[in-house]
Amino acid sequence: xxxxxxxxxxxxxxxxxxxxxxxxxxxxxxxxxxxxxxxxxxxxxxxxxxxxxxxxxxxxxxxxxxxxxxxxxxxxxxxxxxxxxxxxxxxxxxxxxxxxxxxxxxxxxxxxxxxxxxxxxxxxxxxxxxxxxxxxxxxxxxxxxxxxxxxxxxxxxxxxxxxxxxxxxxxxxxxxxxxxxxxxxxxxxxxxxxxxxxxxxxxxxxxxxxxxxxxxxxxxxxxxxxxxxxxxxxxxxxxxxxxxxxxxxxxxxxxxxxxxxxxxxxxxxxxxxxxxxxxxxxxxxxxxxxxxxxxxxxxxxxxxxxxxxxxxxxxxxxxxxxxxxxxxxxxxxxxxxxxxxxxxxxxxxxxxxxxxxxxxxxxxxxxxxxxxxxxxxxxxxxxxxxxxxxxxxxxxxxxxxxxxxxxxxxxxxxxxxxxxxxxxxxxxxxxxxxxxxxxxxxxxxxxxxxxxxxxxxxxxxxxxxxxxxxxxxxxxxxxxxxxxxxxxxxxxxxxxxxxxxxxxxxxxxxxxxxxxxxxxxxxxxxxxxxxxxxxxxxxxxxxxxxxxxxxxxxxxxxxxxxxxxxxxxxxxxxxxxxxxxxxxxxxxxxxxxxxxxxxxxxxxxxxxxxxxxxxxxxxxxxxxxxxxxxxxxxxxxxxxxxxxxxxxxxxxxxxxxxxxxxxxxxxxxxxxxxxxxxxxxxxxxxxxxxxxxxxxxxxxxxxxxxxxxxxxxxxxx
Length: 717
Fold this sequence. Notes:
By secondary structure, this protein is α+β, with helices and mostly antiparallel strands. It is built from five helices and 56 strands.
């Protein structure tokens, strides 16, 4: 019988076993089929996962390539626009076109800020290129602005309205001689003193007169449009010369209240109409409740009061003095004196608070503008395209930045500044002058080594003081990562990474801290003391060697070392001597006279030397050809310190006249002028060039944001 026949015969005799065998075979077959299907599915899943991974990688690569291409296109477009702006500025009337090319590159969220020095330089050139002066030279005793319009009293009897964007004149209105103007907070309504003694209300959206308010006061001292233009507050003199305070409903033209306030010379209404302030010619200053006209505080000054202004929170009142030039700030109520700033250029002009109340801007007697930061009591003078400002106003509500200021000058020019750019960040008292003043490598701390006292680290963010690794520091090198300290008869160098301090003996160096004659560059350290110049390496592997003997041993002899550590400039013998450090060979002598008080240092590129001294001038010498120096003038007393920014594009100078100036090296233009009430004797730049530190003889340290110290200018026609 065949195998199949035998299997059939066996199945009939053993049906149960045959059934079990068939089930087992079926299960086995099903398992094999399932395993095959699982294997195929797993392979498919792996293939899909690999495809997805490859797709994601391709997409990521494509995105990165597109981003790189976009960034490259933006960079190419940026430089193309800079070239076009440069060409536009070469034409007689291309400043507006240049600004259109420059403005889109202002920093925006999400995009890299590509602006370099060329952008700031071209912006300042565009701002100053087409300054338009009105033919009649009409000065602006009052100016205000909205998001859409700039409004100013121009001359004694005219109100002019310009477009904010273009500063093109759109309306001219006749006004009362020496009248007033006021804008509603939303910028929709304008109130101005009409020639007949009434107040006209103009809707700026349509530039149509909305209503006329028949005020009883015919000579207006102050106008205020409050509650978004629903209420008009008036301070002024009536026909019988009595002074009145009136409140009018703008919509109905009805008088809501009136009260006599006595004869006044000045007046102000608080932002929400809660208080009024008045000043008399004899010096009496009084604050009243606007509803009851009851006095809540009174002070008497010696001399004639100037302008006055309330803070936005109505808790402070600021006033200038026309006689004494002092700026005073009182708290309300009670008129308790909070700040009293000595006269700077005779602070007797207009005063105004910024919208958040932090800054006070005041006009000096010479028509310059000064800023007082109430948060840290820092003061500086606004520098820019005009020094003849006669009126100013902060940005309207909702404008960005809120710290922008607009000003009108004596010749009809209109200019803007952003106060948030050169802001004083910290004011930290230390000791009595400094022998070392330097930022850390990351810019987070400032090394301040007071004379005759231990050195200190100052945190840039918090202002807190910390102890550095060495007590008697005189400096440190970011490139070599070494601290240098001075002890009697020795110079120590601490390696930051290893913590090892090496010491070398320098004869008679106990006075080095007083003389401050220690300079460092690359792997070189040079010490000048008692007429001798000694040099060594940072590692102090070689004994210090005397490389020069100077004939003049009286007083300090500052030196400057080139950034690459190969050359040295020393002031002695009535001139500046330029030496090769390795050979001690004299390379050249500069023709400028050395008086013993000049401050000087190398440019970061090592090719030029800046000198500032007794003649109040700054000279920049080209060391390659010894040609006649470039001269920057602006200080009124001798220099106390000079310092280049890390990229060499800007120069900071300090003077005994109490000012610190930031100069554009390429143009000689003053980009920023800071005024302090103490003489600055040290200046330091952060590694990024964004922060400038100043140290005074009295030991006060201040930090300033110097990254965008440029004023922008607009013109009108």
